[in-house]
């Protein structure tokens, strides 16, 4: 009997997580978000149904595509790979299997009457250095709209010592400035550190005028990722003034969340926070650091670029009722509408909310915002 390729759609809770994670761990393109821990936390914290599209050749796993079904109380259901982060997408042994996985996801959406399927994947590096030789074969970031979102990635050397030497004098001075200002940083892996992180994070999100994730979400992430989730905290005396979370997977580390308290920013806690986390994962042997999504040439983009990060494409595709829409360019003008125009007003109102109320209301909204 000839061997056949089988593509299957399974509820996340029905598919063996160990088999899934073994495949993800061995795949060269895997990122921390691909781990089953992300699906587990999403389902336990927010009740969103997790799905796994899998490919099997002679009953051997040869491709996976993680998905989350998001069903808001008002609006349209969607299947996303993956929500609450920049990307997920398919991992497969070859391009044909990858396309078969996506086709099966489209079938799943149609069968379950889910109108929107969103595939978030990463692309190639963009040329962000003007007039630099040897870059002619790369798309230029300068040719893209200023509102384009990119993924900022930095290759790490063999040690934190080599990394520190690679930085410009100004950056090294800023890192030392935080220490001279009396700040100290700690790396924590225990569950209680989540609450310390959240104390800083929630205050900063209210300041930014944005609904905050629930504390339960971060606790479930910690439970699911275990030692593959690191928490960095910066203190002035005994007060936490900065905090960030790093997730580990394959040879890559990513930092999906980092915050500082605004009144302490002149002391440079963010510089010490990032250095503490980046240097640690570098010494652990991770070879790439994902600084997350940024808008071209804005403040966070320039902040990440000074650490050596380079912009990479983010390719988000949306299928509506089975048909591919125009690619989502990941710009702030995507889906521009009345909601986008009202954003400054909404943010100003949110900033005025009492912190306790913002922390109560925010998660009820944030669980349905898949960005």
Automatic annotation (TrEMBL):
<keyword id="KW-0012">Acyltransferase</keyword>
<dbReference type="InterPro" id="IPR016181">
    <property type="entry name" value="Acyl_CoA_acyltransferase"/>
</dbReference>
<feature type="domain" description="BioF2-like acetyltransferase">
    <location>
        <begin position="168"/>
        <end position="305"/>
    </location>
</feature>
<comment type="similarity">
    <text>Belongs to the FemABX family.</text>
</comment>
<keyword id="KW-0573">Peptidoglycan synthesis</keyword>
<dbReference type="GO" id="GO:0009252">
    <property type="term" value="P:peptidoglycan biosynthetic process"/>
</dbReference>
<dbReference type="Pfam" id="PF13480">
    <property type="entry name" value="Acetyltransf_6"/>
</dbReference>
<protein>
    <recommendedName>
        <fullName>BioF2-like acetyltransferase domain-containing protein</fullName>
    </recommendedName>
</protein>
<keyword id="KW-0133">Cell shape</keyword>
<dbReference type="GO" id="GO:0008360">
    <property type="term" value="P:regulation of cell shape"/>
</dbReference>
<dbReference type="InterPro" id="IPR017469">
    <property type="entry name" value="PEP-CTERM_FemAB-rel"/>
</dbReference>
<dbReference type="InterPro" id="IPR050644">
    <property type="entry name" value="PG_Glycine_Bridge_Synth"/>
</dbReference>
<keyword id="KW-0808">Transferase</keyword>
<dbReference type="GO" id="GO:0016755">
    <property type="term" value="F:aminoacyltransferase activity"/>
</dbReference>
<dbReference type="InterPro" id="IPR003447">
    <property type="entry name" value="FEMABX"/>
</dbReference>
<dbReference type="InterPro" id="IPR038740">
    <property type="entry name" value="BioF2-like_GNAT_dom"/>
</dbReference>
<keyword id="KW-0961">Cell wall biogenesis/degradation</keyword>
<dbReference type="GO" id="GO:0071555">
    <property type="term" value="P:cell wall organization"/>
</dbReference>
């Amino acid at each position: 009997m000839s061997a056949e390729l089988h593509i299957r759609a399974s509820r996340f809770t029905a598919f063996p997580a160990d088999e899934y994670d073994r495949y993800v761990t061995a795949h060269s393109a895997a990122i921390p978000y691909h781990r089953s821990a992300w699906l587990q936390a999403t389902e336990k914290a927010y009740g969103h149904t997790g799905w796994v599209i899998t490919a099997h050749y002679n009953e051997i796993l040869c491709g996976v595509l993680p998905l989350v079904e998001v069903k808001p109380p008002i609006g349209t259901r969607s299947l996303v790979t993956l929500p609450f982060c920049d990307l997920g997408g398919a991992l497969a042994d070859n391009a044909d299997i990858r396309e078969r996985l996506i086709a099966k996801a489209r079938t799943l959406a149609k069968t379950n009457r889910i109108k929107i399927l969103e595939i978030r994947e990463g692309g190639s590096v963009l040329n962000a250095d003007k007039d630099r030789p040897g870059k002619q074969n790369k798309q230029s970031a300068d040719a893209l709209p200023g509102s384009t979102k990119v993924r900022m990635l930095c290759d790490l050397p063999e040690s934190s010592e080599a990394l520190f030497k690679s930085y410009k004098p100004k950056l090294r001075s800023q890192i030392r400035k935080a220490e001279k200002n009396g700040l100290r940083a700690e790396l924590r892996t225990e569950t209680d550190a989540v609450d310390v992180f959240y104390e800083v994070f929630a205050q900063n999100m209210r300041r930014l005028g944005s609904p905050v994730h629930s504390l339960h979400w971060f606790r479930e992430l910690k439970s699911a990722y275990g030692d593959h989730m690191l928490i960095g905290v910066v203190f002035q005396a005994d007060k936490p003034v900065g905090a960030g979370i790093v997730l580990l997977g394959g040879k890559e580390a990513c930092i999906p969340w980092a915050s500082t308290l605004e009144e302490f920013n002149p002391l440079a806690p963010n510089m010490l926070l990032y250095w503490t986390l980046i240097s640690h994962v570098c010494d652990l042997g991770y070879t790439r650091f994902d600084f997350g999504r940024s808008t071209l040439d804005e403040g966070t983009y320039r902040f990440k670029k000074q650490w050596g990060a380079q912009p990479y494409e983010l390719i988000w595709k949306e299928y509506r009722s089975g048909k591919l829409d125009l690619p989502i360019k990941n710009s702030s003008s995507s889906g521009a509408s009345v909601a986008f125009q009202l954003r400054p007003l909404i943010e100003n109102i949110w900033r005025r909310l009492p912190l306790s109320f913002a922390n109560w209301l925010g998660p009820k909204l944030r669980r349905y915002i898949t960005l």
